[in-house]
Amino acid sequence: MRFATDTGGTFTDLVVEEDDGTITLHKAATTPSDPVAGVLDALRVAADARGLTLADLLARGDSFIHGTTHAINAIIQGRTARTALIVTAGHRDMLLFREGGRAEPFNHAHAYPQPYVPRALTFEVPERIMAGGKVLTALDEAATEQVLEAIAQADVEAIAVALLWSTVNPVHENRIGAMIAARFPGTPFSLSHSVNPTLREFRRASSAAIDASLKPLMGAYLGSLEARLAEAGFAGRVMVLTSAGGMVDAREVAAQPISAINSGPSMAPVAGRHYALREGGFDNAIIADTGGTTYDISIIADGRVAMTRDLWIGEPYRGHLAGYPSVEVKSVGAGGGSIARVDASGLLHVGPQSAGAMPGPVCYQRGGTLPTVTDACVVLGYLDPDFFLGGKMQLDAEGARRAIEEHIAAPLGVSIEEAAWSIVDLATEAMVQAIQDLVVNQGIDPARAVLIGGGGAAGLNSTFIARRLGCPRLLIPETGAAMSAAGAMMSDITAEFAATVHSNTARFDSDAVGAAVAGLAARAAQFIARSGRPGETHFIAEARYEGQAWEIDVPLPNTDFASDRAIADFRKRFEAEHLRLFTIVDPASDIELIGLRARVQCSARDGASDFRLAMHQAERREAGTREVYFAGSGWCSTAVWRLEAIGPDLKIDGPAIIESDFTTIVVDPASCFWRSAPGAILIEERSQ
């Protein structure tokens, strides 16, 4: 038995995989002050559903997979450790000057962003290594000792080191690391060449600083998770999801916590790719994961999960650049808990502020007083107050109506229903705009892609989103309500290793590139051995046209560059990828190889699994009807279907409401739906 959890802003999702390969879903409220408590609560819900004690359930498990936003929340909320940064003399302002770029070039109303580590805690050491790896100025150890003494007086809790060209020759960074360990036993530190061996100094320094600042917090958090699971009766392996769409042992994440910044959201596209292929062989898909706090969007292009090294914490150019390999996920502040308000000018706004888990929407009856998207859906009849979470939670419909009337309908001078629809409509528009921004960057035509809705609130407005995007089909998997946790079940044990090596197709240094490949292969083999699972390694080249500012990733099925034919094949692969991304190639220009990466994947499970939801966990309910409000149609008598009661391939016209214990799917009058043989709900526009 395996467990996978995803801690969201409102609910903690749990997926349990039985020994026969079937899975069950469970939810519990997230506890913001103690996320581990929410995880244990979800496990108790699963135990109760089986008539077991928590200890008995955990005793059956052999692995526990955890997705968490604890790291990124700590950065956003300013709860990271007080960190010092050591740099090469003359480069104290790396984090201050950044890389340049502005989201709005002519908007000077925003203050220039502050560096992640303040200048007062940035210290210079005399040393210099050249781009080829030669030591120009040896590390001045006496001066370094004085720097460490100044750091001791600054009362810091972690230290980062980012020296020039340490990715080519890390001798000075390694020596400073040894001096830190001797001078500050037990104080965590991060070396930039180990954390993120990228060519660009700012990204490397930012990565190292973020990683070091998270080590005390994440070490304590993951240690508490492992200890409390063990106390509760779990004796298996604890894994943590990473930003790159895989998982590693919890202790490896504690040693390099920057790898888990985008932990939970990175799993939705993993699940989305699985369902896109299973439910129709779609190579292009838009994955939309709607939670209580955020709306997370990712892309599957040509069957591949879109990745990025531009992982920003906060707004691009105004936030902090992690610069770490990550599944590309765009998040906007629009979810079920997004708060609606009318400003002094009489304009309606929805989000980015969220009611979260506490106090939550007004209808949750936990003290919330401001109307949210969830409250609007209760008013419109989309949610059944008596059957939320399968009847486990009673919603206050009258409270939702009062909140919308007081805060939205009265100020706007409209009916309660019109106010509620406006809230849903505005949230929908924000989601559509976010998707359009991402698909344009990826070169995806929504008219040739399937929209996959995940998250507990996905079904409430995904039909409207698909229509506005022009997507011909909406797919909501049977595990869609917990898609990130389901993706965790499907993910592999993964790691990525990088090396900086520079060469050019006009004068290719096969020996240097071959040595870099061999070094990466050795590190990959060591990781596979540590994982205890069978694995494979895929190589990626970071390359660009000579003089080009930014490189692109080029998959390398062949890493032997000893022959002219192999180098010509590398050029062919680069130009095919460049053409896909930018629609042009430049045959007259040479190609520069900037670096190499090795991505390791080890299967986390024995045998294949269909990841089918066990439907016996919920009591069947006959279809009924209720009044539901749709813009342009008003109140409509709408059929209510229980998800597991819908037979396969039976096409049904809207309007309809499809309910399960974990989600509600709204099908408007202009659409039809059916349930596929593998169990997903498919929705498309009804033919006229």
Automatic annotation (TrEMBL):
**Entries under SUPFAM superfamilies matching the protein:** Actin-like ATPase domain
User: InterPro entries this protein is in?
Assistant: ACX-like_C (IPR049517), ATPase_NBD (IPR043129), Hydant_A_N (IPR008040), Hydantoinase_A (IPR002821), Oxoprolinase-like (IPR045079)
All residue ranges annotated as the Hydantoinase/oxoprolinase N-terminal domain in the record: 2-181
Q: Which residues form the Hydantoinase A/oxoprolinase domain?
A: 204-496
Q: Enumerate the spans annotated as Acetophenone carboxylase-like C-terminal domain.
A: 538-670
- Give the protein's recorded name: 5-oxoprolinase
| Source species | Blastomonas fulva
